């Protein structure tokens, strides 16, 4: 299991398309003894949608489960969500500033260049979701 990322959670809902699991995502220092006195600790509640027709009969709302994902899939998600947009931003900014020497134009152009990328992500979400394979097991 070293190649898997695991989160425990509670089943939020189950339908014919899959299961929704509510997890508590914590920062690395949230488990520290003095985290109550520190502003750096942070935790957020997130809902993960796990597609799969076989989950409908196996889980009920309120079940305690463990959601796992491979490190490869997690890396792919990070690249799509943060890495590639950052690369687009930096490349467009550098090219526009080198060509025009106008930093404001470069910044605006770089931000506007992300619009088609995020539209493409939105329209390809079903295809991307098919490649992001989560697994859910009862804990």
Which descriptors would you attach to this protein?
139 residues, elongated, alpha+beta, 3 helices
Structural class, please? alpha+beta
- Specify the biggest β-sheet: 5 strands, antiparallel
What is the β-strand count? 5
Order of helices and strands: EEEEHHHE
Shape estimate: elongated
Please state how the strands of the largest beta sheet are arranged side by side: 3-2-1-4-5
Give the low-confidence spans. none
User: Whole-Å distance between the termini?
Assistant: 15 Å
Q: Mean pLDDT score, rounded?
A: 83
Give the helix level as a range of percent: 40-55%
The Cα radius of gyration reads: 20 Å
Share of β-strand residues:
25-35%
Total number of helical segments?
3
A few lines on this structure:
This protein has 139 residues and is an alpha+beta fold. It has 3 helices and 5 strands, in the order ββββαααβ.
Question: What features would you describe in this structure?
Answer:
The protein has 139 residues and is of the alpha+beta class. The protein contains 3 helices and 5 strands, in the order ββββαααβ. The chain has helices spanning 71-100, 103-123, 125-131, and strands spanning 4-15, 18-26, 43-51, 64-70, 134-138. The protein has a 5-stranded antiparallel sheet. The radius of gyration is 20 Å and the shape is elongated.
Give the helices and strands, then pairings.
Elements: E1 4-15, E2 18-26, E3 43-51, E4 64-70, H1 71-100, H2 103-123, H3 125-131, E5 134-138
Antiparallel strand pairs: 1-2, 1-4, 2-3, 4-5
Helix pairs in contact: 1-2
